[in-house]
Amino acid sequence: QVQLVESGGGLVQTGGSLRLSCAVSVNIFEFNTIGWYHQAPGKEREHVASVNVGGRTDYEDSVQGRFRIFRNGAVNTVYLQMNSLKPEDTGTYYCRANDLSMVYWGQGTQVTVSS
Q1: Which tens digits make up the pLDDT trace of 56-67?
Q2: Which helix (H) or strand (E) holds 109?
């Protein structure tokens, strides 16, 4: 059974950094893409960053240059390094993985950036 477990969220001041982790219960290279999504309070969930099986990364303009997605296949974990955090980055961050037929989500981790 595929499970995605996020961790690393917390409270940080504007300009600070956090590293989120997404621990996957199976080989991460079984998925076409693994990514991070952000859901701000009262808003829809939106793509932030993703990495495909070949290693190509994709970032939303709002986080380009501030966030970095990377992975460690030895521990089946995908990370999101978040630097220069802004109050608008506040929200719940979800890990998402998809293969050819299924989409899997984690339970989310909360990030709060204080001004």
Answers
A1: 999 999 999 999
A2: strand 109-114
